[in-house]
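Lab notebook page, bench 4
Experiment: in silico fold of construct C2
Operator: M.H.
Input chain length: 380 residues
Purpose: comparison with the prior construct
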Amino acid sequence: MGERKEGSNNKDSFAKDNLPSIQFKRKKMKSNTKLVIKSLIFFFIPIIISTVFSSLFLNIKYKEMVENMKEKIEKDDVVLEYSSLVDKVRNSLVTIASSKENLNQGKYIDGNTTGVIIESDGKILTNYSTIKDVKDIYVKLPFVGSEPIKADIIVANEDVDIAIIQVYYDEKLTPIKFASNDEVVEGERIALISNSIGSDYIDNIIPGVITSTNRELSIHDKDYDLLEVNTPINIMNTGGVISNIKGELIGFASKKVTDDMNISNLYYALDLSSLEKIINYTNEIKNILGILEGGFIDNKKSGDNLMGLYVARINNTSELNESGLRPTDIIFEIDGEKINSISEVLKMLKNKKNGDNITCKVMRAGNVKEINIKLENINQ
């Protein structure tokens, strides 16, 4: 019995001796598993972080690249738009000077200015302030190698600084297109285009925007609509075209009007509607009186403040041919009323009927003549 007991104790002793060894192995396995997990975590975390930051970097990098490309495309589009605009306008721009020599210098000469062709028969719009005191007016047309030709003033308005001059050329000229009035709005992109050096193309283009369409200039109790822009108007580009991006005329630049307004860093042009009004009034008056060429003129050169209708050419089949009116005459009084504006003349004539006679005083070579004119072509 003592031996069995001893055997039993040996089994218990063996079990107890081997138990710590099993527990140690289990702990070792757990420890190895944790080590592997930690290793995997430390291995993958940098990869994940690297991937995230790489993705962010690429997004930023390509976003900048896309934005740069987009900006470049937009800039290229703007350049193309303005290049196209110049092509549309340049055949209507002329250079005006007081002598032929000043148009052949290839550089700016004091007194040179820009003009724009408004009718294919040779009518050109320009600033009156730049030509009113010159003896002769010469124009260089927009053809390569063209020689300067002489021009005459047929319409002038000193208040808003515009003049329409006439050249006689064998071929039809290219008039600028007029924009629609409802397209002229604040914020619209524009360009001031000029040519005061007699270049075969253009001399200068300045992009800008319309800052206001609600400006007026009040002179001698009359209000004139103006266009306010941010494009600088100076002595070299006065008389230039204020054009929309389609190359259509929306205004006419004037340094004199800008100086009269006297507002810092803003510039002014005669509004398109005012231009059209003056031109339309002139054409209607000429049609009623039978004048082929001529218009309203405000002649202050001699100091006599003479205003009136300048007669350049007469329709030989009209009553004017019988009245004694002659080319270069200036009608300054109708039925005892002095002429003060082109709108007043039209109003006077519209109150008459076809066949009515009007008594006019005209200035001819410094002498006053009185003539009677029978009216025709009045549309009531």
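Observations: Helices lie at 2-89, 255-261, 272-289, 320-323, 342-350. The first helix runs from residue 2 to 89.
Next step: discuss at group meeting.
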